[in-house]
Specification:
Layout (H helix, E strand, L loop, with lengths): L1 H27 L25 H19 L5 H26 L8 H19 L15 E2 L3 E2 L5 H22 L5 H22 L16 H22 L8 H18 L6 H4 L1 H20 L9 H7 L4 H27 L3
Antiparallel strand pairs: 1-2
Helix pairs in contact: 1-2, 1-7, 2-3, 2-7, 2-8, 3-4, 3-7, 3-8, 4-5, 5-8, 5-10, 6-7, 6-8, 6-12, 7-8
Length: 351
Amino acid sequence: MKTILLSGAISMIIALIGTRPTITVLRKRKLGQEIRSDGPQAHLGKKGTPTMGGIVIIIASLIGYVAGHLLTSDPMSASGVLVLFLMTGLGMVGFVDDFIKLFMRRSLGLRSGAKLAGQAVVGAVFAIFALHFPDGYDLTPASAHISFLADFGVAIGPVLFVIWVIIMVTGTSNGVNLTDGLDGLASGAAILVLAAYVIIGNWQLRNDCTTALAPNCYPVRDPLDTAVVAAVVMGACFGFLWWNAPPAKIFMGDTGSLALGGALAGLAITTRTELLLLLLGGLFVIITLSVVIQVGSYKLTHKRVFRMAPLQHHFELAGWAETTIVVRFWLIAGMFVALGLGVFYVGWFPK
């Protein structure tokens, strides 16, 4: 518990203090956001706002993780390092996307195929390594099973597992990316899901099969360190949100949104709660579905279901204030997190 609190606090302080000079540097170099002309007109006033703030979230998370372990003498784990690798790798894909937007003055950045390829490569490397590094109990960071509250069914094998992880990683990172359309929306929603994984990791630690065999114990390799990773990323998001809250002084960009999506996917895989992430991240699912529905409807009928997708922009065009949308979507995210944690707890209860 000490490592969780200390690592999270260090990460939050670094992000809180480090974002201010990052804003200054980005402004001096005129690395501001390009705004799509076909989006809500209210967004045109945000043109030039510094972006790529996700760099701060990644750096703060990495420093908080390492510093917390050094100060408490707790060993780092394969699970924790791999989740942070996944987060950083996807952040690098997002950085390339942001770089193209800023230096080539093109609001769309990387081509969708190139971005998906980058996400797939990082996800595949993570999946392959996650099936290695067994501990003394022969537990690896991930298992070749699909999981909900724990692993279920038969093992799907390493090849199908890698494909499954790629689907999870690309789906989650793009879901967070689509949500990152209003000031503070994605970072606030991510904080709530990350808080859930701090609780899940701590609960799994207290009911670890390697310390006490019981009908409802959890065969997870590194439950403590998954909680530490969730805490450092959550702390970094807290520090960043201070500057990202409406009206935002800086945007996280694809650097941050893809990285956060990677962290959530990695935590779901290493805690054996892959399908539960659909509940915990319900807001991201709804916003992603709004895009799928909009695109599918237009291609089939040439009619739009929403005024604009993703969903948050539909409400903007309906006249809702940006802060109203953000707060209400945070509330929706919180309800999904509460539902997911409730299901997780009920699933543990002795039958």
